[in-house]
Amino acid sequence: RSSDSQSSVEIDQVCPEDQGCYTIVVRNRRGFVHHNIALSVIDRPDPPASHPVVSKLTSDSLVLSWTGPSYDGGTAVLGYIVEVREEKSENWTEVTKDCINTCYKVRSSLEPQGQYRFRVRAYNSIGVSQPSQQSHCITMATQSKKDNPPKYVDVVVDTINKVKDHYDVHEKLGVGKFGQVYRMTHKETGDICAGKFYRASSSKAKAAALKEIELMNCLHHPKLAQCLAGYNTRSEIVMVMEYIAGGELFTRIIDDNFEHTEPTSARYMQQILEGMQYVHKQNIVHLDLKPENIVCVDTTGTSIKIIDFGLASKLDDKPLMVMHGTPEFVAPEVIGFEPVSLETDMWSIGVLCYILLSGESPFQGNNDAETLALVTEAQYEFDEESFEDISDEAKDFISSLLKKTKKRLSCTEALSHPWMVSFTPLLRRPTKSLDKTKIRRFLAKRKWQGKTDKAVHIHNGNLSPGHGCIRRVTQFQIVTSSSALCDQVLFLLLLLGASHPEPGWSQEAEEAIQSLDKQLQCEPRFRQALRDTTLAKGATAQLTCLVNGKHDLTAQLDHY
Question: Which of 45, 205, 287, 462 is in Cβ range 3.0-4.6 Å of 73 for a Cys bridge?
Answer without folding.
Answer: 45
